[in-house]
Amino acid sequence: MADPATPARSWRDKLFGGFRRTSEKLGENISGLLTKAALDDQTLDEIEEALIVTDLGPAMAARIRERLAEGRYNRTLTEEYLREILAEEIEAVLKPVAIPLEIDAFPRPHVILVIGVNGSGKTTTIAKLAHLLKEQDYSVMLAAGDTFRAAAIGQLQVWADRAGVPLISGKEGGDAAGLVFEAVKQASAAGTDVLIVDTAGRLQNKRELMDELAKIQRVLGRLNPEAPHDVVLVLDATTGQNALNQIEIFGDVARVTGLVMTKLDGTARGGMLVAAAERFGLPIHAIGVGETIDDLRPFDPAELARAIAGVAYAR
After folding, report:
1. C-alpha triplet 298, 243, 49: angle, nearest 5°
2. Do 60 and 145 lie in a common domain?
3. What is the pLDDT of residue 5?
């Protein structure tokens, strides 16, 4: 029998490995700023700027500057001390938003509308989310609501097969709202716990996207006034500032209720997760630090904070 602690250790290794480039970038940016015997205002300004450049966002950078300024006359500032402060402040920001998806809709199904631009990892995230929910003993069905993009339905079918969940799909160019209506009916008849709905990811015409999402939400509302129960925006961490812009755009268009951040492995822009949490305060349900189907998980704020700050985690 497998050691039940093994998956956790494996996830921790992926987490710290995934954020290595972010913590290394942080080290590069603050290198040479911590050699002065006393912290003056100029050095504090330079440290604040270095933290902003690491994609942690101006609010977090200002908080760290404040913390350092409080004790600048009675403590020698080392990189280790700065990273410890950073870990503490990041944890404080992430704690309120580290909220896993709760499947609590009744009657079933619990409907999760997944939105995001093409290329954000939306399709794979849907399958990984289905896999995660199946591990929690929920039955899951997918709906291929992105009928606009040529390869979207085929890609989702491949991932649905990998996740071992049924997919409701229609013709390319078909009516997305009609397909979602049919998917809810089938999920209800089958007693399925969760229906995850893919949606079109184009932003070239915001009005078209807004109209389509509004239509899907109206159809869902006719079947169940509480649906969709979650509107989850998938963000690609490697896009940096653009990810924050997408939260604003989709927030206006689709009433986003929570976030999933993907592609955190191998990017130096993991600090964007912190910037998003600080600026918007939306629940961050899960993060992706790999390409396999079990590489999407909810996170422990303390563990993640230490991974970003590059501080060893006390087991």
Report:
1. 100
2. no
3. 47
Query: Do 234 and 122 meet the contact criterion of CB atoms below 8 Å apart?
Result: yes
170 φ, ψ (degrees, to nearest 5):
-135, -155
CB 132 within 8 A of CB 297: yes
Residues 221-279 have pLDDT tens digits of 999 999 999 999 999 999 888 999 999 988 888 889 999 999 988 788 889 999 999 99
**pLDDT of 7 strictly over 90:** no
Cis previous bond, 109, omega within 30: yes
φ, ψ (nearest 5 deg) of residue 121: 95, 20
- CB within 8 A of 54, min separation 6: which ones? 22, 25, 26, 29, 271
Is residue 240, in this structure, part of any structural domain at all?
yes
Let me know whether 93 and 207 are in one domain.
Answer: no
CATH code of the domain covering residue 197 = 3.40.50.300
Predicted local confidence at residue 189, as pLDDT: 97
Burial pattern 234-273, b for ≥16 Cβ within 10 A else e, equals bbbbbbbeebbebbebbeebbebbbbbbbbbbbbbbbbbb
Q: What global pTM score does this model have?
A: 0.92
d(C-alpha 254, C-alpha 210), whole Å: 7
What are the beta bridge partners of residue 236? 262
Residue in the structure block whose two tokens are 């799909």: 169
**What is residue 247's three-state secondary structure?**
helix
Average pLDDT, the chain: 89
> Is beta strand 194-198 parallel, antiparallel or unpaired with respect to 284-288?
unpaired
